[in-house]
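Ticket #4471: structure export looks truncated?
Reporter: QA, pipeline team
Priority: medium

Steps to reproduce: submit the single chain below to the structure queue and open the exported record.
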Amino acid sequence: MIEELRPADHRPGRFFVLGGGHVTGPSRRTDYRSEEAAEYRRLYKSARWKATRARHLADEPLCRFCLARGIINDGSLTNTGARQQDPRRRFLVCDHVEPHKGDVEKFFAGPFQTLCPDDHDIVKQQLEVRGYIVGCDAAGRPLSPDHPWNRRREALSKVPD
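Actual output as written to the record:
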């Protein structure tokens, strides 16, 4: 259910209350994550995280997934190697290799990897959900060793004659 709230000047479409979410304005989005997620989201605003992130990005200034594909991406490109058209997506992400799930010690200790926004928001999410990266080589074979096709081939190669 969407209930519209009008600001003092009564122009429509400026502020909304979305069922179960927070009040949003022109520059804010509704956060539908759990209360636990809201707790650890605060860690991203801490001085300790900002220093950890800056230190990691100085040590690893290129997207790790792009490098594996042969693309040198300092945050100015998409994950396909094209120039990033959206200036709000021209940055690099200090990503937790293993999900921390709110564990503060794991949050600050890492391990970390540098990713471009496309790889962080699309490829890494698929990896966490599926357990493998989508994509194939020129011959049509999956790139990820964890892809089910590769696991099936491994199992078949272990069958005794």
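Status: closed, not a bug. The export was complete when the record was re-opened. Leaving a note from the reviewer for reference: The chain has a mean pLDDT of 79.
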